[in-house]
Design goal:
Elements: E1 2-3, H1 7-21, E2 31-34, H2 36-41, E3 44-48, H3 57-81, E4 86-89, H4 92-104, E5 109-112, H5 125-131, E6 134-137, H6 142-148, E7 154-156, H7 171-177, E8 186-190, H8 195-215, E9 220-225, H9 228-243, E10 252-256, H10 259-265, E11 268-272, H11 275-283, E12 287-291, H12 295-301, H13 312-317, E13 323-326, H14 332-343, H15 345-360, H16 367-380
Parallel strand pairs: 1-2, 1-4, 2-3, 4-5, 5-6, 6-7, 8-9, 8-11, 9-10, 11-12, 12-13
Amino acid sequence: MIVAGEPSGDLHAAKLVTSLSAMPDIAFDFFGSAGPRMRDAGVEAIVAADDLSVVGLPEIARALPNFLRVFNRLKRAATDRRPDVVVLVDFPDFNLKLAKSLSKRGFKIVYYISPQLWAWRRYRIRAVRRYVDLLISILPFEKSWYAKQGVEHVEYVGSPLSREVHATTDRVEFCQSHQLDFDKRIVALLPGSRHKEIVRILPAMLETAALMTRSEPSLQFVIATGTEENGRDADVIIKAAREKGMTLPQTLITIRNETFNALNASDAAAVASGTATLETGILGTPMAIVYKTSGLNYRLLRPLIDVEHFGLINLIAGERVAAELIQDAFTAQSLADELFRLLDAATNREVRERLGVAAEKLGRGGASKRAAEAILRVIENT
């Protein structure tokens, strides 16, 4: 049984399923909470993970009846089908509760993409100690952190993104396929993967683009979205900005499902905080990390966060390689200033070198295969 609830978890879980399916002399059946990538990889969707991704405490509260229905459906499926192991992927608010419930019913629990308890809500470490048989970590500092908290059943496998994040086109090819001028500078805009993230973050990014082109009219902007639905959200916001009279850049395009190629072709990027900051760092594109949620969410959540950096790439680097413009610090002017700084040739080279050093810390590939082997050992030792 495998349970994911967000796009990044769906991606990592799909890679894990592919690695497990490739194991010699053993056959697996997979079922659980599956997004589109997991379903493509052969996971039977007892529930669709697509509808579970929400951000913010008020939003989670409104979604509780649906979460409860999904929770009970997954519990029934586990009880009926008796999986050899339950693999929970990220999504800690839901999955830690599921771990408790299923562990008490005698199931072996593996937690893949360990919850970021080092960042916030550390009290949840008790649930990990009591109800998780194996915690699989993808970040290099996590194993020692968990050990200090008394959690020894942790295996570090490296990031599943390492050596798997790469462009399939070079800058010239990307520009030719999207009617861009490869001799002119390109800025990528990544507003997030959830509807509410895009709604809150993209308008400020568009204001930034409008502001920057007043100083440099030749700048080209590429809004990179991961799904068709995200792309439609972006198109609606762009249309609304134009209807309000905003003078957008002459070259502003939205692309779907080609984020790595867009980042690889770009001189700099504005990236919503999350997994995308790691992907951008691996590709070596200098970035500003941004995030904005509702004022209520920020007031509720900020006191729970206990970490030096918001951006994952900065946490990996152990220093502020990418500027972080969070909540009130994220304005059109502040983002424009930072992107112009990153477009300076000397600064750009320096940041690319520092990102390369940080990316090396993520390992040298094969994380999904190592995670699959660790899960197989749990099954064999049952």
